[in-house]
Amino acid sequence: METQQVAERYAHGLFELTQQSSNTESVYQDFSDLATILKQDDSLIQFLAAPQIVDSDKTAVIAKVFKGKVADQLYHLLELLVAKRRTDFLAEIAAEYSRLYHDSKGIVETRLISAIPLTAEEIGSIRARLNKLTGKTIEITTEVDADIIGGVIAFVGDKIIDCSIRHELQVLREQLLELKVH
Q1: Where in the chain is the domain with CATH 1.10.520.20?
Q2: How far is CA 144 from CA 23, 70, 122, 168, in A?
């Protein structure tokens, strides 16, 4: 099974379960916190994915670390992932759950890349424009990449809005190369 298919299957199952119990918000928060921790230090994933460690030891660690500290549905998902040997998909499952949560709340995750750091006012202005354009609530994360020279690139859901100087120069270059000089 492909990574995305595995992530979708487990995330959809968890999402449906949390919707039935009206626990979507707390599971989302717990899962987001866990995903952040795993990005900073993947030693838990390495431990859980290690074939030389028996499943009972992995389950014991999951119980000691997470039982009573995260939502029950998330805790049981972690136990299930250990039992099915799917713990190496945890980051992808968290990302898919986050996407499902945001879709249900009308939130679009947007990654904004600029050549220099943007002020809060500039981010607010861009957010307002994107809110109007999409009709949804925009949640922005920013990055700085001097290679774009100027302007911004917005990754809004599955769409890319490229208003960078680098992109404009590429378009201009292509237009000039297409010109036939006699």
Answers
A1: 3-103
A2: 36, 34, 14, 18
